[in-house]
């Protein structure tokens, strides 16, 4: 009886070990989806001639949701145990996908800026949010990198650098 329980105990233990990488991956998926939602909202913005102050509401909601999701991700990553090699590879793959989602959304934010410029208050509000999101993203990146095996931390930093660069250039355009 005891012996037959053993495999269950072992698999539960394995599940716990995997939970940290899995929770970071889930946080990244949440962040990615919130970024896509923000991008969709950008795409449904009216042209500058039709833009009204109320149109900024959905954008702010999406921005705040994204910021919350990144901040939750920071906590998840900080609370995580060190990642195994297998988890590190999965997180690296997820980082590459997230990087393209974030870069394409930031590029879109630059594309739609002329529409916002019709209303003086919009760009400064976006700038504040961008800075908060960049700061949270930096903290998320640092927290994840600190859980990666030491030998891979340099590579992890390199994988994240384009996200930082994309934030920098978008912030420069909104400043
Ligand atoms: C993100 O969106 C994808 C596709 O819609 C979905 O499969 C996935 O479950 C979502 N992730 C989270 C964490 O909600
Ligand atoms: C954001 O929207 C632009 C414009 O439609 C599109 O080219 C880009 O692929 C979208 N990116 C994401 C992450 O949805
Ligand atoms: C986690 O990894 C770091 C190196 O990145 C190491 O300094 C630390 O001791 C490790 N922590 C545990 C609990 O193994
Ligand atoms: C982004 O800007 C910050 C602060 O200005 C700077 O420290 C960082 O190196 C820049 N990142 C990249 C990838 O250029």
From TrEMBL:
Kindly indicate where the leader peptide sits in this chain.
1-19
Origin superkingdom: Eukaryota
InterPro entries, per database record: Cell_wall_mannoprotein_1
Q: Which GO terms describe its cellular component?
A: extracellular region
The protein's UniProt keywords, in alphabetical order, are: Signal
Q: Does the keyword GTP-binding apply?
A: no
Q: Name one Pfam family in it.
A: HsbA
Q: By what name is this protein known? A: Antigenic cell wall galactomannoprotein
């Amino acid at each position: 009886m005891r012996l037959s329980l053993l495999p269950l105990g072992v698999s539960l233990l394995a599940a716990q070990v995997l939970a940290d990488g899995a929770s970071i991956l889930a946080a990244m998926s949440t962040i990615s989806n919130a970024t896509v939602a923000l991008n969709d909202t950008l795409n449904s913005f009216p042209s500058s001639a039709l833009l009204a102050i109320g149109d900024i509401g959905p954008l702010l909601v999406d921005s705040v949701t994204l910021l919350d999701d990144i901040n939750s991700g920071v906590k998840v990553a900080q609370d995580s145990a060190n990642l195994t090699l297998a988890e590190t590879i999965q997180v690296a793959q997820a980082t590459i996908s997230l990087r393209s989602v974030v870069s394409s959304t930031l590029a879109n934010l630059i594309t739609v800026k002329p529409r916002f410029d019709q209303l003086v208050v919009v760009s400064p509000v976006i700038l504040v949010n961008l800075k908060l999101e960049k700061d949270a993203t930096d903290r998320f990146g640092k927290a994840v990198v600190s859980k990666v095996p030491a030998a891979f931390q340099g590579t992890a930093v390199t994988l994240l650098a384009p996200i930082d660069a994309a934030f920098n250039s978008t912030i420069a355009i909104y400043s």
